[in-house]
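Backbone-to-sequence.
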């Protein structure tokens, strides 16, 4: 398996510290608001990466924190006349629910910053003791000139960083790039007692302390959005490597930005799209599907048009699964088997699965791996086009079906429910079946079959008026009648 390492700017062979195990840390959200789709993309990317590691046989310990104390949380609490803890609780719960809606696996360990203060104080005490940090009026700062490797992750020298960033000159700092490990509490702010008085931790120290506590140091993979490379991850490295004098982590992975209609999300454009608003009227699987179409490191464009295209492509896969199920149910088990076609399909499925794995092993190339799912879809669509004959053809079609469900499942997209082809059918179909065919039950599939056989009867009797009325009634509800080799059936939507 190859992973692109931001630290070396190269794709490297992945070798975990302990054979068969992976320790992975991904920076979690600061819970002062609902997350936007850009944040969601990062979490989906690392979820897909984690799932591929698991599917490759690794035992993955996945740690992802919640930053539940921060200036932004305190500001929001003050604006709304609430406590910071209330604001943090609301949005951390909302975040956990949103991740669940999106099919992101919960982390193995989800540390909350406010419950890990002792570990952070310990890290800071060590940094002060070994000369890498200094106290100033209740604040504690990291002294970047004590760490000559500062800038190695972002690939910039200290001089470049100084000239490329605007700084408020703070007289308490020895150097403009020095950053806060601990902030003295202002009146009304949440605080913890520590050797330097009342205060709270800086953001960067959280991740250094919590990753070391739960994964040890070094650990295998550290991930986050590309916007965290500087200063957050650069500072994490400085803190952790100065605290313990060993490498912080071996592989740095960063997810690309999400653009809205090719524009960066920004306050001035007012184009922040919250995940919860997107998911209010969208199947979360379609959003994941759209995200998979772009490599995790590349910028991804989000637009209504791309989302619609993703919905269509997704539906093509779902529809293929439903078609396979239907053809399997209506197979002519005593007809002659096409041995050459079975062999061709088996080969296409095996090749698709192999290539899928190879693409994912190559720095998680989800877009190309998704292409392999479509190659299986294309092969099986051709295979079932004339219906299925004999148990061997049924078996081959089912194997293709299972491979598609399995590969989509590895992406975190559950296609199993597509097997229920009546999911989402409107209840009025039952009333219509009663009207036109005298159907009395409440089984959607049986109602559809009753209507179809009534239509076939009418056509046979050349009663075109009834046949057309049935077709029009169905189409008004969103159904079409598909005539296939094995007979007619209803299809809904699309
Ligand atoms: Zn972090």
């Amino acid at each position: 398996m190859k992973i692109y390492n931001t630290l070396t700017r190269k794709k490297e062979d992945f070798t975990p510290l302990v054979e068969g195990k992976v320790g992975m840390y991904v920076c979690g959200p600061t819970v002062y608001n609902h997350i936007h789709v850009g944040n969601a993309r990062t979490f989906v990317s690392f979820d897909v990466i984690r799932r591929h590691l698991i599917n490759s046989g690794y035992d993955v310990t996945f740690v992802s924190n919640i930053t539940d104390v921060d200036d932004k949380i305190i500001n929001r609490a003050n604006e709304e006349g609430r406590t910071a803890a209330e604001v943090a609780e609301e949005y951390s719960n909302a975040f956990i629910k949103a991740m669940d809606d999106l099919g992101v696996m919960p982390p193995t360990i989800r540390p909350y910053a406010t419950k890990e203060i002792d570990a952070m104080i310990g890290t800071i005490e060590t940094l002060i003791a070994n000369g890498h940090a200094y106290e100033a009026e209740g604040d504690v700062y990291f002294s970047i000139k004590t760490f000559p490797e500062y800038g190695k992750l972002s690939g910039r020298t200290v001089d470049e960083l100084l000239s490329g960033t605007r700084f408020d000159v703070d007289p308490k700092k020895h150097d403009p790039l020095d950053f806060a490990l601990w902030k003295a509490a202002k009146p009304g702010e949440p605080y913890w007692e520590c050797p330097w008085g009342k205060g709270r931790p800086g953001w960067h120290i959280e991740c250094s302390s919590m990753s070391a506590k739960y994964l040890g140091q070094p650990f295998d993979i550290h991930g986050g959005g590309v916007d965290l490379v500087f200063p957050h991850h650069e500072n994490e490295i400085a803190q952790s490597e100065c605290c313990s004098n060993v490498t912080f982590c071996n592989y740095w992975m960063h997810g690309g930005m999400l653009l809205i209609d090719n524009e960066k999300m920004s306050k001035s454009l007012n184009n922040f799209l919250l995940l919860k608003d997107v998911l209010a009227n969208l199947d979360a699987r379609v959003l994941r599907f759209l995200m998979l179409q772009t490599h995790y490191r590349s910028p991804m464009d989000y637009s209504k048009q791309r989302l619609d295209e993703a919905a269509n492509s997704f539906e093509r896969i779902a529809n293929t699964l439903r078609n396979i199920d239907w053809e399997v149910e209506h197979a002519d088990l005593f007809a002659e088997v096409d041995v050459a076609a079975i062999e061709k399909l088996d080969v296409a499925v095996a090749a698709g699965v192999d290539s899928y794995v190879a693409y994912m092993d190559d720095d998680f190339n989800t877009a190309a791996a998704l292409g392999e799912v479509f190659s299986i879809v294309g092969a099986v669509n051709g295979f079932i086009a004339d219906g299925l004959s004999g148990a061997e053809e049924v078996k081959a079609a089912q194997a293709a079906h299972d491979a598609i469900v399995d590969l989509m499942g590895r992406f975190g997209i559950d296609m199993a429910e597509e097997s229920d082809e009546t999911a989402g059918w409107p209840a009025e179909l039952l009333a219509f079946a009663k009207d036109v065919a005298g159907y009395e039950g409440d089984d959607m599939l049986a109602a559809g079959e009753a209507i179809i056989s009534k239509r076939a009867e009418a056509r046979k009797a050349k009663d075109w008026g009834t046949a057309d009325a049935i077709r029009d009634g169905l189409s008004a509800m969103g159904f079409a009648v598909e005539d296939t080799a094995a007979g007619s059936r209803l299809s809904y939507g699309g």
